Amino acid sequence: MSDMEFIEYKNFKNIEKIDEGIVEKTDWSDGGIKVALKKLKTYEDQEKNTLREFEFLRNVNRLELAYYYGNQEEFIHKELELLRQVSHPNVNRFLGVTKELEYKNYIIVLQYANQGNLKKYLERNFSSLQWKDKIQMALDIASGLKYLHSIPIIHGNLHPQNILVNDGSLMIADFGFSKEHELRPELGKPAYLDPQYYIKSSEVYDLENNFRKLGGRYYHDFDDINHQNDIYQRLCYKRNEKSDIYSLGVLFWEISSGKVPFSKNSNYYIIFSVRRGVRETPIENTPSEYQQLYENCWNEEPNQRPNIDEVYEVLNKLSSQNFNDLDINNNDQDDKLGMDKNEAKAFKWDLKFFGKSLVMAQYNLEYCATGIGINTDDIKAFELYLKAAENGDTAAQCSLGKCYEFGIGIDKDEVKAFEWYLKSAENGNSYAQYNSGVYFGNGTGTDKDYVKAFKWILKSAENGIATAQDVLGYCYAWGIGTDVNWEKSFEWYLISAENGLAIAQYELGCCFANGKGINSDCAKAFEWYLKAAENGNTDAQCRLGKCYQFGIETDKDEVKAFEWYLKATEAKYKCNEHAKVQYMLGSCFANGIGTDKDEVKAFEWYLKSAENGNWDAHFNLGVYFENGIGTDKDVVKAFEWYFSSALYGYETAQYVVGCYFANGIGTDKNDVKAFEWYLRSAEHGYPAAQYNLGNCYAAGKGTDKDDVEAFNWYLKSAENGNVVAQSELGNLYALGRGVKKDQEKAVYWYQKAAENGDATAFYNLGESYELGIGVEKDEIKAFECYIKSAENGYLNVKFYLGYCYVNGIGTEVNKVKGFELFNEAAGKEKNNVFINDDTEIIDDIDKVCYWYHKVAENDNKVALYKLGEFYELGQGIRENEMRAFEFYKKSANLGFIDAQYKLGNIYENGIEIDTNKEKAFDCYKIAAEGGNIYAQKRLASLYEKGEGVQKDINNAIYWYKKAVENGCQDVKENLDDLLIYQKK
């Protein structure tokens, strides 16, 4: 960090913690000013937090963490460079960097804000602020953000604790280290976060369903879930300028109200509400233009939000106006609530007749609560409820709990809400009993206690509350506050279902379908699914779609399946598997299930499903973009969709991403990243990835070459059914590469691969039978294997199959058939094409065909030798040392000297053939005596080194001389050295 403004830590005096130990204020002796010190998280901290957050979704190793964070020093350096470039009066100024003496943590030195952050400032000063002050505060923030966006920097985490106040002027802080926010959205401040995050998350639907089941309050451990930020971080939506604009809108509302948005609600409640379009209620007497501005800013659709220049322009205009002339909102409070005049009157009548109708009072108050009260009347309502509650009216006590829960006529207070619910419950109010159970289950306003939660839910259920009856069934099903008892679970689901609760009807269908608490009965399962679906339960509608599509619990009817899927997607309240239903609709259009095949519509539904977090749809979109199905072909977009699916942990997508990196498709070619993605997929058990990983280790691509690791991954792939890996495993056992050579195991894996139809394995198996390697010799079985290899598409075997016909190996001699196969393998149309016209030899495969024709002539030792060469070098035909050896042996047996040399070479250096220096020596000796200079050279070397024969310098000199005399000058130096040695 030599190019940074480094400040010695010893120059700071009077250090005082001001923000939970993260930020300190201090006097800078050299600078003569008070400054703020902010500690930076180390890489290890980041890793620890990230690992915890990702654990809930999938196992993440250090490789993945490094992928996101890279080198700590480099990361910090890059971000400090970003900070150093920033200079604006409404942006917190970066002064330099220091390093803590004791713990060696990096600390950034920042301009000190003498009035704290915006949250604390509003708490202390809001009552004295005028509208001109509020407009100026908003303008300060907009000015700072306008500057950041112009650089460009996306803040990504705007909230009141990141806005500092210094001498009445507002400054944006914590805008550095922002790339991290693109990957890990913080849920500590969900009210300020762009709702697109939640809209993109399929997991929200699971939580939503639970939320609706308990009327908006659930007794499962949502605090634990909230701590798992992972649920909402699917990487589908990255923060951008419009994300900052959304946060800005919420901040503007907070400046107008002096309150933290949704301050009394849990994180989950905020996420649930904001995702559904709920926003805080505008404050009375807010200037209309200002209100319109922040409402535009927090629009759900990013492209309908203004940009920062437009925001700044509106605020700048407002700041120059006389506030007495502003159009102040004095709208009727009923309209502000979204309630029409009749609804407001209905509420007043409910107050008038309070106590006479428990159900009416309860439901009407709950209905009004969704509008967050009606200001004048809600205060009166609260007063009346309080008076009645204190006089022992149980319904009023329950309603008073509602007032405290939703902040109707009084500030929200969960503890008091719980106290009044409990008092009402103890006095026998069924709704309060239910709510008390929920509060105990959630630990809201009281300590969490599942046993007590169960007790009150049971009382409410026994008093006829259908929702409580359903929840009680769930408690018995999963042992929440009681022992697991599926029979009782079924009984309560049945009671609730018969009382008309659609979700209970659906769950009852599941009980019948799975034999939980009752004997399995597909007909009744379907009957209850149908009732629930007709009553609007979208999970049941989805289930019916599956039933009709696959003929589960009813006759198969793809048209009805399609109709129910479509109905489930059109419902106001989304089902637990909404994104999955969209995926199923895409599948219907893709395959013409229940509707006409339409690849464009299939693409559109897959896209919707993917945007809602279905990772199968992400993968399918990759396929569609890769192949141009229903959309234009675009391998870059294909890669992006495959990549997002791979990040989620979908092993097939991880394999495809590896292939894309390996081949440079849609991204830069990168063998290291290809290896990394193959590894992820392979560790998830994907056979093709395990095979490719074996290839990487075998070839040293993207990693160090390692034959043992290659063998291990081929073995895993083979055991998981990958046919190519099974065949390759046979080769490794045959060659002894990465494992001890074992011809019997080689045959075993060839047989496994052949049983699965692998053409190459059939050939290798045939060769094993023909030569008796690892199995008893059987030329008939060998011939049968060659036939099957050819039938399964292995072109090269046709040459040798023709040779078998010509020479009667495993079959009767049929030279005509043999010649036909020679020509088929070479792609020639007529037989004997090369016999009389050697000029037609064009390329290697033609040469192979030519010599196979020639070998059909009796005792053609040259042709046999040439075929040995082709197999040895892999020219025009697949390299095969074993087959080369056999042809050389036949040629040598017919007296061809050069073939003897080749046999010697294979015995000395072979891989498939076991090395044998003694046999190598014998073959070289025959070839050397026959005049082969290469054999003379090798024979001399064996004599010199005593390999395969007793060391003999005289014989070594003799054969080196022979080789030199015959023109091999590269061994003259060896000869001279031995002659000198001999003289000594």
UniProtKB/TrEMBL annotation:
Gene3D superfamilies: Tetratricopeptide repeat domain, Transferase(Phosphotransferase) domain 1. Signal peptide: none annotated. InterPro entries: Kinase-like_dom_sf, Prot_kinase_dom, Sel1-like, Sel1_AlgK, Ser-Thr/Tyr_kinase_cat_dom, TPR-like_helical_dom_sf. Pfam families: PK_Tyr_Ser-Thr, Sel1. GO terms for molecular function: ATP binding; protein kinase activity. It comes from Glomus cerebriforme. It comes from the Eukaryota. Belongs to the sel-1 family. SUPFAM superfamilies: HCP-like (SSF81901), Protein kinase-like (PK-like) (SSF56112). This is Protein kinase domain-containing protein. Residues 12-315 form the Protein kinase domain.
